Structures are given as structure tokens and as C-alpha cells.
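Hello Y.,

Per our agreement to keep a running log of every chain we model this quarter, I'm adding this entry. I've kept the format consistent with earlier entries: sequence first, then predicted structure.
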Amino acid sequence: MKRNASKLELGPDAISEQITATRSHNLGEVQEVKKGFSRFTILSMTIVLMATWEAFSSTMATALTSGGPVSLVYGCILAIIGAMATAASLGEMTSMYPTAGGQYHFTAKLAPERCRNFLSWLVGWIGTFGWIAFTGSAPFLAATMIQGLLILNLPSYDPQRWHGTLLYWALVGLSTIINIWGSRLLAVVEGLSLFIHLAAFLVNFVVILVVTPTKNSASFVFTLYENNSGWSSDGVAWSIGMLSSCYVLTGFDGAIHLAEEMPNPEVAVPYCMLSSVAINGTLGFAFVLAILFCMGDIDAALATNTGYPIIEILRYITGSNAASTAMTCTFILMALLATVALFPSSSRMVWSLARDRATTGIKESLDSGLMQRAYELEKQVHEYRPPDHSQIGDTDDPRTPVSHLIRIAQIYRLAVLLQLYQSFPELLEIASDKMVQHDTRNNTLLSMLAMSYSILTLIAAIPRTSGVNCLLTLPLIIAGSTLQQTAHCVPEVILSLPSRDIIAAEILALNNQDNVISYWRDFVRERITAVHQYVGVAAIIRGLEILEKVWAQADLKSAASSSLLGSLSATLVLWPDVMADERLETILG
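Predicted structure for the entry above:
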């Protein structure tokens, strides 16, 4: 393997990704999720979760009652204009702050300092409850629409509320299964959902216009106003009718909550939001016009016992219960697919609040329990003392004296601590009896880097001919993965070991960190290669390949951060994350 494998040329896409990661860090967020969605996938997901023309089929009853055709037509136009304006405004803020928190993060950045904490907390919870309710609305409409079809086709069917509840939970459960156990297939599912969304529109649109027995006049569609809402004020009634159009054009901000899982979100998220509103608004308005021109009598549609005027309208247009059922099934299918698409955005909203510790103690209790276990493990490792010469029998191997065994124990002790600190960097900030001491100028990453140097210094003292070399792979990976650029000007970092330790390591005046890191990376490459030659197991070289990818990603992040933004991401690229990216559960594959 080439030694310069970690030095990659910075391409535009890679630079853009590192800009996004560093910008998220500057906003106080750590890149904790993989960028597993493409722009097309997010666009598909946003279009499908809105499902505007299908949603009109379930909400038009409100508009027909409160305003009639005028409420649907002009309400739809106003809703599209308002949605486009809102999407443009949110897109502008997302281009500056592309995080999963979305609106409540915007509030935290832009609100007056004296009230930003309260306002961002309030906006976050309002948005979260809104997304939960919005996610629950799609399967509810689908479940009750299924009951409507049963009423249409089975006159003896007696609808019960618990029937709808069971259907609702079945749809929610199926969507949950797809999102949890089929998450790797979400891109395929969303692409297929977009195709169904467009194809179903084309089929329904053509059938409605072609087979309808009569067509209403233009004056019926564009000028007829009917107020059957019970409100004496036509203005109030018309405003209530607007709900039909406003509801079906919400959800485009779902792209914001997936911003951390897509490349170049500063550009891609505004594009997805505006495009989804434009596409869905166009399809929805066309569907509304087709229905209004072909629906027949309004009163007959509203009087249906199915609960959904669209079922009666389609039965009137086609003259067939079977055809009406088939066309309505496309709405139900799209409601299910919309639920699948709604889950990622709503779950990311809850996750973002939990990450910001705003979930009323839920995440805090989980974190505190895990942190307590980590702290106890750290304490046990600190208290562990390797056996001395008197406690270990002679190995009868001149290449592997007892001192090498003691040194291996010390190496593993430090390696366990370093891995623990990589997973729980908060431990380094706890003011207790620490192995690593650093002044206030130094951050936790520099402390971990110092531990890495100490481990490698101990390993360097072991000859390549020693029998303990076969045990060095994991410590080399743990220590080697920490060899990442962490600051431009590095103050003195000192790692002090307790006096009872035989080996004391000291890192002095790291004025040229690039050279030191390069030196130790070369050392790790040589020693892992030597271990591979000594043991002859291919998985050892796989460990080196993982390290090369860790270093490549770290160098890419460092170069993009320092040269383009003037600041540096304060997070390590972790070797277990790289293994996960490579679909490796263990180093052995």
C-alpha cells in the first residue's frame, strides 16, 4: 500500500461536504449521521410526503362545505403562492444554517439574545408536535378511506371506530418497519414512490376527463360560492375552506430536517423545497380543476355515507363502484407511501431536540446512565496496575522477556482509556483524578493525541522480533486513528503517568504537529506491516486500510476547514465509523 494514500486531492464535492461539516460544527452541532441521501432522494421524499393531489381527495369536503368551488380554486392559488414564499424564506435560512433542527435552530441564531433560548425551545416543540400530528394524519386518512370503500362495496358493513384504529396502527406499523429495518432501501422506495405519485396522477387525470358523463360550466368552477358551514360570515367560512388547500401544501420543510444527511445541503435543501411546492402545487391545482369540472352535483357528493366526497364523485364519473374503488386505492397507497416518507423527517426533528437536550430529560437520563457506566469503567482502568516481574513467570523465550509482557499490559491499559475517551470525550472534562492533565488552553483532542503518542512510544520500545508483536494490532489501530490534525498552533501538551507506572511518557513542545503526525503515521504503517509479516493474517492489513481511510477523511476535513473557513472541526474521524461505512462489523470483516 502506498504511504501517501491518505493524501487525497480535494475535489469540489469533497470540499463542499467538509464545508458543511465544519459549518455545522460552528453552529454547535457535530456531524453524527452519514450522508446517505442524494438530492434526488430528498426531492422524491419531499414530493411524496406532501402528496398534494392525493391529499386534496381527502380534504376537499371542508372547502366544498365552506365556500364551494371558489374556495377550492382560489384557495389553492393563494396556498401555492404562500407555500412558495415560505419555502423561499426557509431556503434562505437553510442555506446559512443547514441543520436537522431547522426552524428552531434558525430562531436560536436570529432571535434577540435575551429571549432566544425560550423562543428556540418553544419553536422546537411546536414544530415537533406539528410533525408528529402531520405524520399521523396520513395513515388516519388512509384508514378511514378504507372504511369508506367498505361502506361503498359492502352495504351490510357497520363501520366502527376501532376498525379505523386498527387499520391506522397497521399502516403506522408497516411504515415503521420499512423505516427501521428497510432504511437502506429508502432511496429505492422513495424513487418508486415518486414514480407511482406521477403515474397515478396521469391515470386518474385522464380517466376523470375522458369518462365523465357531464361537465360543469366554467362559471360553476370559478364563480360559484356556497356557505354551508353554519358560519354567518362568508369571510370566516371561506377562511375555513382554505384549510383544504393549506394542509395539502405543508411538509416541504421535511427536507430541512434531513439536511445533515445529504451532500451540499446549502443548495440542495432550498432546491428540494421549492421544487416540491412547484411540482405538487401544479399537480394539485390541475386535479382540483378536473374534479370540479366533472364532479356533478355538490350536494350529492357531500351527502355520501362513505365519509369522503371523492369516493362518490369518482363513482358518479365512472358509473362503477369497482372503478371508483380502484381509483381510490391509488390515494390510499400514496397515503401509505407518504407515511413512509414522513417518518424520517419527523424522527429527525425529535432526534435533533434530543441532541440539544430539550426532550425533558429523556435523553439526559439515557446519557447519564451510559456516562456513569463509562466513568466506572474509566475508574477501573485507572485503578488497574500491571503485574510486576515477581508475579510473572519466565517465558523461556529470549526474544520475549517478562518486561515485554508488562509493557503490553501498559499499552493495552492506555489503549482502553484512549478508546473510551474517543467514545466519551466528556470524560476528559470531568474534574477528577485523571491520567491526562492539560491546561485550559488545550482541548480534549490534544489530550487524546498525547495519549496516542505515549502508546506509540511504548510500542516503539518493543523490538520487532518480540513475541508480543502479535498483540499490537488493536493498540496500533486505536492510537493510529487519533493521529489527526487538531490545531494550527499547538501548545505544549504533557501526558503524565502515575509514578507507580514503570514507563513514563512525555510529549514536549509539539511546535510542528504536521511533521510529528506524519512521523507517527509512518511508524504505524511500518509496525502494522511488520505484525502482518510476523503473524500472516490478512485481517491485519485490513486494519491498516481502515486507518488509511480515517487519515484521508481527517486530512480532507482539516484542509477544507483551514483553507476555506479559517476554522477547524473539533471532532475526530472515528475508526469504528469508517468500519461501518465499509459494512464491516469487525476488523476480520
